[in-house]
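Supplementary Methods. Inverse-folding protocol.

Structures were first reduced to a discrete structure-token string of length 70. This string, shown here, constituted the complete conditioning input.
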């Protein structure tokens, strides 16, 4: 997650990094947002991270399906 108005780090570098990672990571650039996402957009950031974590596979299976079998 990266703010498009971040003056500390460059979102284009993060976009390039994600592209070179070839599907091993995701990039989510938030328009009009600065560097300190956790301060300015805490709930939105936490929701985004929670959604991302929930979508990660467990033992090669979708986490949501895996949790339903427990």
């Amino acid at each position: 997650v990266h703010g498009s108005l971040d003056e500390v780090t460059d979102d284009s570098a993060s976009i390039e990094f994600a592209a070179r990672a070839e599907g091993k990571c995701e990039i989510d650039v938030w328009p009009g947002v600065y560097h300190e996402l956790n301060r300015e957009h805490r709930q939105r950031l936490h929701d985004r991270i929670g959604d991302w974590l929930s979508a990660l596979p467990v033992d090669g299976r979708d986490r949501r399906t895996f949790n339903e079998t427990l």
